[in-house]
Amino acid sequence: xxxxxxxxxxxxxxxxxxxxxxxxxxxxxxxxxxxxxxxxxxxxxxxxxxxxxxxxxxxxxxxxxxxxxxxxxxxxxxxxxxxxxxxxxxxxxxxxxxxxxxxxxxxxxxxxxxxxxxxxxxxxxxxxxxxxxxxxxxxxxxxxxxxxxxxxxxxxxxxxxxxxxxxxxxxxxxxxxxxxxxxxxxxxxxxxxxxxxxxxxxxxxxxxxxxxxxxxxxxxxxxxxxxxxxxxxxxxxxxxxxxxxxxxxxxxxxxxxxxxxxxxxxxxxxxxxxxxxxxxxxxxxxxxxxxxxxxxxxxxxxxxxxxxxxxxxxxxxxxxxxxxxxxxxxxxxxxxxxxxxxxxxxxxxxxxxxxxxxxxxxxxxxxxxxxx
Length: 372
Known about the structure:
This protein is mainly beta and 372 residues long.
């Protein structure tokens, strides 16, 4: 424990002046060079007595019409690249727990080591009949925990949801026990439009909204009605063989909310690996309980990973419009909604996180007002 504390203090105290491309505004860091990318891994380059093995951060850059993998000068502890090295990520901030809960910008390629930042968080408090070892995902109410009103949400597998303000001097967890088992494996997201954390229940049958001011213990629940696509009986039978995952994602530039229903299927010809089979997109109507199936989201593209999902204007970032980019621990690809076609490749992605571009991060600070 003491070695990690020394490591964190050393990295914070030995900062150099900010590198070119870093702007400071209202006491916070705005890093102009963060590209749209996903974490590929780290190339081992040595070790030090503070962090043990270290490696140069490797990213796959998605900032142009094509993507390429490159090795950065920035070094990171190799342990965070292990499959169990991180618990989740949001907006380029990663939560790890090797020596206690710790939120850092280690994996944000736009943050040089000279401007490293991290937050030691209180130990997790396990509620009765809950566990705090396995996490479904994390989400934040702002793109930076340096904002005083930013709230970090950690959704554990099972009934527990825990909230904390990382920038508070006297940090503490607010722990919520969710009674509805439909949420036990759900992924949490933050809706800037509604100013609430939200989770879809299993099957997407209903959504729980946690109003930070009123409904912490008892969420607002909306029962959903779906306009599903027309399929042949054989197609429904094929989908019945799939595992399903529901995720919510908000387009902050258009103020639209989407629910993604992912169908994953085991490929027994490839060692039984799980693969993306189909993706359906439902758009929330004027009535928040009504969701309409769509294969056209216009000039938008969605990014799904183990990090908090996000949505961008495709033409502004030279990406394929009306598409979903996805990555998990073994598969990376793109699903085009118009022709229902998937293109993917398989590898071992130990930290499968998409990092939003800096324009998105800047716009989604607590006081941000710019659309990405």
